[in-house]
Amino acid sequence: MRVTAVIPNWNRRDLLAGVLRDWRAQTFSGAETIVVDNGSADGSAEMARAMGVETIALPENKGFAHAVNRGIEAAQGDWVAVLNNDVRLPADWLARLLDAAERNGAWFAAGKLLRASEPDIIDGAFDLLSLSACAWRAGNGKPDSALWSQQRAVSFVPFTAALFRRELFDRIGLLDEAFESYLEDVDFGLRCALARYQGVYAGNVAATHLASATLGRWNPETVRRISRNQLLLVAKHYPPGWIRRFGWSILIGQALWGLVAARHGAGLAYLRGKREGVRLLRAGQRQPEPGIEEVLRASQTELEALQRQAGYDWFWRLYFMLT
Questions:
Q1: Residue 191 DSSP class
Q2: Which of 250, 209, 184 is nearest to 124 (CA)?
Q3: Distance, CA of 40 to chain centre
Q4: What are the backbone dihedrals phi and psi of residue 127, each rounded to the nearest 5 degrees, phi first?
């Protein structure tokens, strides 16, 4: 059995060198590495090649989804591990995650991500999507606890550090490059859920994550893309009549998210993204697959239950109060 790591990168050769060292130190034998460099100007591609790593050097940065897709296309492994350059992996990360996936017959797997600066705080576990098209990286900002150490079946995993059967991409398709960066993994998870391909969250497997190391969590470009891509999810997946069925939830969720962006000085970027997203809505929706409402409602129900158990964030407390 072989596993291929696909590592998209844009500048930050220091981070790339770190994750490459961690990957080489994995106890699992039979792993290969592909770095997909998005036109870095800091010598990242040259450094990766000097380390003996297969490197696909793209002439320009067309986004995370484009880079990951090029790596998956070149991957020879039975499994593909997608890794951000700002994650750090213990030596047994791959072996334990692969074991969890195979024991559960899962199509994909992810473990716990801890904040590099605060290792007792969760950066993220798995993803959940509300009816509002706002996603929650479950556990983000919460203290690590037994709640996040449990194993559970999941439909959405962040492509920050996750493992996938190579065959899954042949069945589901690659990442949708229209998303460029941000929420492309949520879109992929929706497609998996609709086709009944399930994953596993292994809470006993942990890595650390620097988080938004390339642009920053509230960088205007980050906010613009998330703001746009929330409406791209609606345009792509939500069923006919979504305004009547989900309109109030979408209005409340999107308005609250705009307030969060404005609070971090990114209100204009939020509005630019929404303007682009509205154009996508007006361009017409694709034909949604049967079962989308069931998937969305199940995800939101799980999101609310976890918020209740872990302690409500103010965003989600207001969202559920108002909807």
A1: H
A2: 209
A3: 22
A4: -105, 155
Widest Cα–Cα separation across the chain: 57
What ranges do the domains of the chain cover?
220-322
- Please report which residue ranges of the chain form alpha helices under DSSP H: 13-24, 44-50, 64-74, 93-103, 166-172, 184-194, 220-237, 242-263, 267-282, 292-310, 314-322
What's the start-to-end Cα distance of the chain, in Å? 48
Residues 86 and 77: beta-carbon distance below 8 Å:
no
Place of tokens 């492994």: 77
Q: Is the pLDDT of residue 217 over 80?
A: no
Place of tokens 């439909």: 155
At residue 177, what is the residue type?
Answer: E
Instruction: Give SS3 for 91.
Output: coil
If you compute the radius of gyration of the chain from its CA atoms, what whole number of angstroms results?
19
pLDDT, tens digit (0-9, with 9 covering 90-100), for 48-90:
999 999 999 999 998 999 999 999 999 999 999 999 999 999 9
Asked whether 132 and 249 are in contact (CB, 8 A), the reply is yes
- The helix/strand count (H/E) of the chain reads as 11, 12
Nearest to 5 by CA among 35, 27, 26, 25: 35
Residues 80-109: pLDDT tens digits?
999 999 999 999 999 999 999 999 999 999
What are the DSSP calls for 221-238, one per residue?
HHHHHHHHHHHHHHHHHP
Q: Distance (Å, rounded) from C-alpha 293 to C-alpha 131?
A: 9
